[in-house]
Amino acid sequence: xxxxxxxxxxxxxxxxxxxxxxxxxxxxxxxxxxxxxxxxxxxxxxxxxxxxxxxxxxxxxxxxxxxxxxxxxxxxxxxxxxxxxxxxxxxxxxxxxxxxxxxxxxxxxxxxxxxxxxxxxxxxxxxxxxxxxxxxxxxxxxxxxxxxxxxxxxxxxxxxxxxxxxxxxxxxxxxxxxxxxxxxxx
Length: 186
Hints:
The chain is of the alpha+beta class. The protein has helices at 24-27, 33-41, 59-64, 114-120, 139-142, 178-184; strands at 9-10, 45-55, 73-82, 85-95, 125-126, 130-134, 153-162, 165-173. The radius of gyration is 16 Å and the shape is globular.
């Protein structure tokens, strides 16, 4: 693992007992996180856009998307809120080559949830979910404003394909969601 990069692994490669039990069902759920949050938040769900711009993705993101080192992507960062509290930090990396044709709409989501669009698209395929424990010093951890000191955060990511065009979605679970996990888990 390179310094500053979280170690993303599929479930079968994670030592038993490493992931806290309340969060495990959320990390490995293959369904839409947006839909699950809407149910738990009982109508008090919203998306707050932090930024959306063309940049060079992080190295591990470029590797996951099979991008060349010099390539840029549209990177969208948002907080998924429940009752005004940030529960999830989401980072979407969309290679510029993905934004052609029908996928141009990905650049114009605004505060609409990406998950709704992804799971409504009949051409959508999804790679295996990878999870990681993010700690201070990880580049992705440094992009997240948690509001209070945090030792570590758990996240998941997947490559989605729309008409065989890739985009990477990383979802990091924030401390405000923790008390709710045991109530809404499987």
